[in-house]
Amino acid sequence: MAETLFRRLALIGIGLIGSSVARIARERGDIADELVVNARTQATLDRVQVLGLADRVEGDAARAVQGADGVMLCAPVGAFAGLAAAIAPHLAPGAIVTDVGSTKMSVIRDVGPALPEGVHFVPAHPVAGTEYSGPDAGFTTLFQGRWTLVTPPPGTEEAAIVRIEELWRRCGSMVERMEPAHHDRVLAIVSHLPHLLAFTICGTADDLEDESRQQVLKFAASGFRDFTRIAASDPVMWRDIFLNNREALLEMLARFTEDAQAMARAVRWGDAEYIEDKVERGRKIRRSLIELKQA
Amino acid sequence: MAETLFRRLALIGIGLIGSSVARIARERGDIADELVVNARTQATLDRVQVLGLADRVEGDAARAVQGADGVMLCAPVGAFAGLAAAIAPHLAPGAIVTDVGSTKMSVIRDVGPALPEGVHFVPAHPVAGTEYSGPDAGFTTLFQGRWTLVTPPPGTEEAAIVRIEELWRRCGSMVERMEPAHHDRVLAIVSHLPHLLAFTICGTADDLEDESRQQVLKFAASGFRDFTRIAASDPVMWRDIFLNNREALLEMLARFTEDAQAMARAVRWGDAEYIEDKVERGRKIRRSLIELKQA
Fold it and tell me: Which terminal residue of chain A has fewer beta carbons within 10 Å of its beta carbon, N or C?
């Protein structure tokens, strides 16, 4: 067995991602000798103990990180500034702080400055998920065949980066480094905008007059049904992602809206060729995804 | 075994829906004594014979309907006006003409007036599908647990309607009658708009500068991936649906765009409560769908 990566790893937050990491760490044994799990509520901590996800649960984030050589922030990104301030005085010298947030510029802004000298900071984002959340939602194969994007700020120690990359490889993930601002733009189009559209169409449908709304539910054809699956995700997590990737998300939405208006114009004026061309393009992209085994 | 519904049923077009009906008819034996299949290309007709989907294949739609007491139009709705004109002089007295198109006002406009006196016209729409198309795509369980909406124009003979409803029940579908204009509005929001959004976002992503586009494909998180599945559908079919449900689709898109702009404004101004509320609403709709077993 390879050398264990951390003596003591503290998971701050234990939702879908955190509990998947915990399950993998328990199963493999070479990620951490000791696993400490922190959550906001006693109910979640109790559940973590029932599920056997931790060596120790800890209701206070500051106490959870004490003596840990690895700290992984797995809470919604909107909580990161407060968490960083709370844990900073208690971090062990040489510890590596990482995270799993879906926005990286905000994490670098909110966490980086709070950390003391001698603590390493390696932001990362496992691009994997389901519409389920909470400590029961995790599973050990979540990251298999998926990418984890590692977005270290300039000047981060290489050894610390490599340790986090190895952690994600051991979780089954493929790993790539990316510049944080670029990460936020790519994720805005592949994940944040699709979710915004899915949440929005559910609201649009819900606003229809009563009879239609019932029929929307009753006759949900494959299109709408797939959108609601995306839209079933955790409200606080997504609220935080939208607010913390504002610029890139608004830009992608603006581009999308222009394109949707162009499509509306083609529908209004009967431009069959334009419409067919756009649908054909969707097909091509789907085929590319299948070739890349991301579908 | 129940009495067979048609002596000779002619399927005009043999894509996902048509070939699923054919497979079910072959398997059950009580839908038609004889199955005639018409398609535009010889390649498709050859394939139908290899798959054993028909008693007889026929390259000419007019010849295909001769002597048939049931005719089901399974082509893209944009082809219906031409098909109706071509088959009308050859329809047997008392025959029932039905269709499976996703837009019903256009079908009533394009097909109804062309049919001779004494021929019954019962438009219908099985709300079921996958992203695959063609005679190989069909399967016998496609309609199970799904609704077929039957939208007869005023004055249609009740016995003809009942026969088509029975056909869909034998195909495994649940059946409901609906006013055609109402059908088009409901389908605009549950199916046509989701598809328009999915096609559009694929184009928006495809227009990104080269490096980002590659990464869109590489890191397709679950959101974008699900959209591309919807977007993989048949271009001609969807072009025709958009053009033939123009008013309802443009209205739903306008409502959606207002809602998306309201969301954009909330993101720009940091209105956390608004965003969380909209995401929560998506969840509720998903839960309703699961309760209704449509998810």
Answer: N
